[in-house]
TrEMBL record:
This is Dihydrofolate reductase. One of its GO terms (molecular function) is 5-amino-6-(5-phosphoribosylamino)uracil reductase activity. It comes from the Bacteria. The lineage of its organism: Bacteria, Bacillati, Actinomycetota, Actinomycetes, Jiangellales. Gene3D superfamilies: Dihydrofolate Reductase, subunit A. SUPFAM superfamilies: Dihydrofolate reductase-like. GO terms for biological process: riboflavin biosynthetic process. Residues 5-183 form the Bacterial bifunctional deaminase-reductase C-terminal domain.
């Protein structure tokens, strides 16, 4: 069965964005960027895949992306209506109307959507791109988390999850470290 994978970047103190949804403070390095393109190129937006010269590479991990409105909005702000053209795109929002036929807006229960997607016959997984509220709502369905921890503390912002107190155990299955201080933690539901 397909898995829902929360592939997300975070600061050391657990924030996926600043208080105003900023992400431009996350430091990058050549070694880390090279790894990201090679290992998780499917999770990059189409314009980044072109920059990395992998625009035409076949998908190897994901064929579908599920994201919240705030994750989708930066693309809309610069006139991009289909930011992940190489994936089936779902945006969970109760206020957005689909600006592009390649993007499906879901205004209903995201858990029901994910369960339907998981039941599909595919060897590739579903990429949960965020944000915190959607990740919190989908926590019961998250099978795996790939947490890209950036070597920066920001103090406040958008947390990894917005949900009530509900402990869920995950098992650490892999750690990638980079000379730049980046760490990638791979967790599977325990």
């Amino acid at each position: 069965m397909r898995q829902l994978v929360y592939y997300i970047g975070t600061s050391i103190d657990g924030f996926i964005a600043g208080p105003g949804d900023e992400v431009d403070f996350f430091p990058m390095s050549d070694e880390y960027t090279t790894w990201m393109f090679a290992q998780y190129g499917d999770a990059l937006p189409s314009h980044a895949r072109q920059l990395g010269r992998i625009a035409d590479a076949p998908n190897s991990r994901f064929d579908t992306i599920v994201m919240g409105r705030r994750t989708y909005q930066p693309a809309l702000d610069v006139g991009i209506t289909s930011p992940y053209a190489h994936l089936r795109q779902y945006v969970v929002s109760q206020s957005l109307e689909s600006p592009d036929p390649a993007v499906t807006v879901v205004d209903g229960d995201p858990v029901e959507l994910v369960r339907r997607l998981k039941a599909e016959d595919s060897e590739l997984d579903i990429y949960l791109a965020g944000g915190a509220g959607l990740a919190g709502a989908l926590l019961p369905e998250i099978d795996r988390m790939v947490v890209k921890q950036y070597p920066v503390v920001i103090g406040s912002g958008v947390p990894l999850f917005t949900t009530g107190f509900a402990p869920v155990a995950f098992e650490l299955t892999d750690v990638q470290t980079f000379g730049s201080g980046h760490v990638v933690l791979d967790y599977r539901r325990a």
